[in-house]
Amino acid sequence: MKHDSRLSGVLHVLLHMAEFDRPMTSEMLAMAMSTNPVVIRRIMGGLRDEGYVKSEKGHGGGWTLACDLDAVTLRDIYAALGSPDLLAMSNRTEMPGCIVEQAVNSALNEAFQEAEALLLKRFGEVTLAMLAADFHQRYLERGSTHTLEDHHGS
C-alpha cells in the first residue's frame, strides 16, 4: 500500500524555511527532504499559487515564506496540496448489487467519513506556529547548533 507523505514533507520544508532569514534554494530544500529539486519546485509552485510562499530568481534567490505561521493551519496546507485522500482504505465494489457488500460499504463509509471529519477538524486546529514551537522545544532539549544538517540528526 502506497503512503502519501506530501503533507508531512511540505510541513517539514515550511518549518525549515521559517528558520532561515534568507531565501532557500530548491536544492537546499531537496537536501533536507532527500528528494529531487524538481519535486520541491513542483510542490512549492502550488504553495506559491496559494500565497504561502514566494520565489525570487537569480543570485541570492530562492523560496521564502509569504505567510504568518500563526494564521496558517495544517488544513490550509492540506487544501493547497489538492486535498489528497486521507485514508488508504476503501470499499470493495466488485459486486454493487450484492446486499452484503452494500451493508458492509454503508457501515465502512460512515466510519470513514467520521474519521476524515475528525482528522480535518484537528488539522484546522494546528497552526504552523504550533509546529515551529514544538520544533524549537525539541531543538533546545537537544542542544543543537543552528544548521540544516543538525535538524536532521538522530
UniProtKB/TrEMBL annotation:
The Gene Ontology CC terms held by the record are:
cytosol
Q: Which InterPro entries match?
A: Tscrpt_reg_Rrf2, WH-like_DNA-bd_sf, WH_DNA-bd_sf
Q: Which GO terms describe its molecular function?
A: DNA-binding transcription factor activity
Q: Which Pfam families match?
A: Rrf2
Task: Specify the protein name.
Answer: Transcriptional regulator
Species annotation = Paradevosia tibetensis
